[in-house]
Design goal:
Radius of gyration: 18 Å
Distance between the termini: 22 Å
Mean pLDDT: 88
Low-confidence stretches: none
Order of helices and strands: HHH
Shape: elongated
């Protein structure tokens, strides 16, 4: 039961990261059509931060999906 909840949580993080990554890319793309330089900077940096946070969420899912095992095959959690 616990592993099912962990997979649901990780899948939800991945889906939300992909949705907000799309929103961030659209915002970044739209910021280049703005005429006011202050608005451009505000939209550009907010979209960049949103994209960065979403990439961290995707990396989190990848590292949870493919855990790094030691060479001897013993997982660190099992050894404790």
């Amino acid at each position: 039961m616990t592993t099912v909840l962990i997979w649901i949580k990780n899948s939800l993080i991945l889906m939300l990261s992909l949705v907000f990554l799309t929103i961030g890319i659209n915002t970044l793309w739209g910021s280049f059509s703005l005429n006011n330089p202050y608005e451009f900077l505000m939209y550009f940096f907010s979209a960049s931060l949103l994209i960065l946070v979403c990439i961290v969420g995707i990396i989190y899912f990848v590292f949870r999906f493919f855990p790094n095992k030691q060479q001897d095959g013993i997982d660190e959690d099992e050894a404790k």
